Amino acid sequence: MAFCEKEKQLIYDGYTVVDNKFFINYLPDAPEKVVSVYLLGLALSDSNGSDNSCETIAERLGITCDDVMAAYQYWEELGLVHIIHDASPRVLYLPIRSSASALKKVKPSKYKKFSIEIQDLFAGGRTINTAEYYEYYMFLENTTFEQEALLAVAKYCIALKGNTIGYQYVLAVARNELTRGATTLALVSEHLNCQQKYDEDLKLVFKALKLTRKFEHSDREYYDKWQDYGFTQDVILSVAKSCKSGGMTALDSRLTEYYKRRAMSVKEISDYEECKTRTYELAKNINKTIGVYYQSVDIVVDEYVTAWQSKGYEDETLLAVAKYCFRSGIRTLNGMASAIDKLYRNGITTVNALETYLAELSYKDELIRNILVKCGLDRRVTQNDRMLFNTWTAVWKMPYDVIEYAAELSAGTNAPAAYVNRLLSDYKQHGITTKEQALSYKANQAQSAATKSATLNGKEMDRRQYTNEEINALFSALDETGD
């Protein structure tokens, strides 16, 4: 497939058509090699032979294929060509539009002085190509950065890294300055000169980190940030000596963590690290106790342990809760978190309070187990049993001996627990609160449980049928009653 192609409007045999608008609007500002690529490619676009290739254009013009593609990117930005990016990139020549929008967005003549001066800065190092100039122009066009300020950044970067550095590094530093709000020569120079004063301090930091490389701009940025945090040189060096690996990035991570935790002095950092070590050991022991494993316990500390500690739970209490969770079949951190939330709502945050609470639960379970036995059930106490028992005792205020009596009556029925619940509900409706009253109530019952109608003065009365609205009103009224 041909490397260069034209839309049908541009195809003629035997000669190459160049629109006059190209010469008038585009050629004056375009670099020579960029124009050469455009014209040669336009001529080759009539051919489908092997000479129609990026390599042919590069060879004939004495440049590289990268330079050829950079030139076409230049023209694509102006709307004169379209680069088709597939397995083998191709360039489609487009008709030159006469509208103002088709004119060059950046006129290199605007940056003639800048272009000369920035190339002089790189003298002896390398030659700036068209694509690089284009990146500088675009940065200046799209920001409020002054040309002189960008030259100052380039000079700073060359002094730091040498005159072979790429434009990406220069623009990265420039964008950092832009983020700070420094866009003029005065502000940029002031900040960059200020950063260089850290070099003596950075030498000591590098020595503590056992780094032998040259300073980077990012190193000075780090040190500037640490100064803004409020760390002294002694603190920075102390932390640097404790960093076994990772260099400046690891040191920055540590100092940022300390800053967030308000550990600003050597002693505060030491206390924080000691507490952090204990917390991580606690997280590992909790995991081991409930039977889970995490390769990294960072998330366990951040999502669970720290939150539990903030509620006042000490290590001993958390381990005790983990132990009881394991014995209760709770084998996840989420499950343990739910258990702790329940304990916290009940004001239980110490081991003694936990032991007392569990003892109360155990005693209550024994009472429930006795009820189950009287019902004729031989099984473990379930959560549903506990909920029913709580309703009977705490909500309905039924005495324990009345519950025992109801349980005895339920023995032999198909669903003893449900039968007890119905009996106790009936007792509540009739105001029965003692065992004697329950015995009398049973003896005086005049109708069987299966009776579906009532009689009055010897006449049978149908039960009243309620409408949906009346049912809703009755259940709404339940919310307004006390017990």
- By DSSP (H or I, 4+ residues per run), the number of helices equals 23
Label the overall shape: elongated
**Uncertain segments:** 8-12, 99-104, 446-457
Helix content: 55-70%
Strand order of the largest sheet: 1-3-2
Largest sheet: 3 strands, mixed
Label the structural class: mainly alpha
Mean pLDDT: 84
State which percent range the strand residues make up. under 5%
**β-strand number:** 5
Distance between the termini: 88 Å
Q: Report the order of strands and helices.
A: EHHHHEEHHHHHHHHHHHHHHHHHHEEH
Any idea what the radius of gyration is?
42 Å
Description:
Helix 2 packs across helix 4 and helix 7 packs across helix 8. This protein is 62% helix and 4% strand. The model is unreliable at 8-12, 99-104 and 446-457 (pLDDT under 50). A 3-stranded mixed beta sheet has the order 1-3-2. It has a two-stranded antiparallel sheet with strand order 4-5. It has helices at residues 20-26, 32-44, 54-61, 65-77, 112-121, 130-142, 147-161, 167-180, 185-196, 199-209, 217-229, 233-242, 247-260, 266-290, 298-310, 315-327, 333-345, 351-374, 383-395, 400-410, 416-429, 435-443, 468-478, and strands at 4-6, 81-84, 90-93, 454-456, 459-461. With 483 residues, it is mostly helical. The longest helix is centred in the middle third of the chain and has 25 residues, at 266-290. The termini are far apart.
